[in-house]
Design a protein that fits this description.
single chain, about 15% strand, globular, 2 domains, Spore Coat Polysaccharide Biosynthesis Protein SpsA, Chain A, alpha/beta
């Protein structure tokens, strides 16, 4: 599917099959894929996510686990409406207290209710646009028994308008990626809604007695730790949509909330260091790349006042690398030069 061929209006108006029609092509009774959808205050988007699930055409049974973390809008009503129409397929999980605020990993809470051999992830503000997504991924990953994760590119939406360039298009054909480039990318190698992961990975996570997964597990480390042994299988088809800066999204939160951003920043950096330890420093050279890139992004951020950036540089100078140090001393710490450089960069990007 080309980006220009995707129309969100057609997607929204497409007639949904009833439950019997969804299940008509299924062979056997064993759940092959559990779709796990985590949601919080996604009333503006959730119906599109559910539509993408219900329209999947597969020859295997799948289930939909929708985990709501005590939304304060109409999200719960939307879930109940669809769960009533698809009672065999949809399993609704409603928390009594917000778990994210307690430091819980809500995806793991949702996965705990799953029974499938594979977990397909889709947060409530993203959605799938191809009705053969699950079948395509399952058919592909079955040929790679050592591979634990499969992903694909996505259409990026600005509002309801598709951006011309695909999001996370990593190759022009199917390809198995080893873990190095995934680590170096720093967390944005795969669209979250594209990830299909073997349940074997989550079994290990649940059995792990260390604090790493409970403390730091996020999209970056799903991508990384699932790819350690058998790589990550890429399919060159945009089968999901990614909303940039949707209302209530994580990206919007870290952009608009300085206190949240600072806490997230420190945890992100600590998580990379801990991941390096957990992999016995085998990939230290790779982990240094996102560390240095992120340090530079903080130093280059004009929304952070200069005294704070000076303090940050002093605290993290050992990890910043020589390129970052050169840019800091020659450009970034000089306000006039830095403003001119940022203006020049913006101008060049707009051409």
């Amino acid at each position: 599917m080309l980006v220009k061929n995707f129309c969100i209006t057609d997607f929204r108006e497409r007639k949904l099959p009833d439950e019997r029609a969804v299940m008509a092509s299924w062979l056997g009774s064993r759940i092959e894929v559990s779709i796990v959808c985590t949601t919080y205050n996604h009333e503006a988007y959730l119906e599109e996510a559910i539509r993408g699930f219900i329209t999947q055409r597969t020859n295997f049974p799948f289930e939909i686990v929708i985990h709501d973390d005590v939304s304060t809008d109409a999200t719960r009503e939307i879930i109940n409406n669809y769960a009533g129409k698809y009672p065999t397929i949809i399993r609704a999980v409603f928390q009594k207290e917000n778990q994210y605020s307690k430091g819980e990993k809500v995806l793991l809470l949702g996965v705990a209710y799953a029974t499938g051999q594979y977990i397909a992830i889709c947060e409530g503000d993203d959605f799938w646009i191809a009705d053969n997504k699950l079948q395509t991924q399952i058919d592909a990953i079955r040929a790679f028994p050592d591979c634990e994760i499969c992903f694909h590119s996505a259409v990026m939406l600005s509002g309801d308008i598709p951006v011309k360039k695909l999001f996370c298009r990593r190759a022009k054909e199917q390809r198995l990626f080893q873990v190095g480039p995934i680590i170096r990318c720093g967390g944005s190698f795969m669209p979250t809604a594209s990830m299909l992961i073997r349940m074997s990975f989550f079994d290990r996570v649940f059995q792990d007695k260390s604090s790493f997964y409970k403390t730091y597990l996020m999209g970056y480390f799903y991508q990384t730790f699932c790819s350690l042994s058998g790589g990550a299988l890429y399919i060159d088809e945009p089968m999901s949509a990614y909303r940039s800066f949707s209302e209530g999204s994580w990206t919007q939160t870290i952009s608009n909330n300085p206190v949240f951003y600072e806490k997230w920043r420190d945890r992100y950096l600590a998580s990379i260091r801990e991941a390096d330890i957990k992999t016995n420093y085998k990939y230290s050279k790779d982990f240094r790349v996102p560390l240095r890139r992120y340090h530079l992004s903080v130093l280059n951020n004009p929304a952070i006042d200069l005294p704070s950036r000076k303090s940050y540089f002093a605290k993290n100078s050992r990890e910043i690398g020589w390129v970052g140090k050169v840019l800091w001393f020659s450009l970034i710490r000089w306000s006039i030069l830095h403003k001119f450089a940022l203006l020049l960069r913006t101008t060049i990007r707009s051409i």
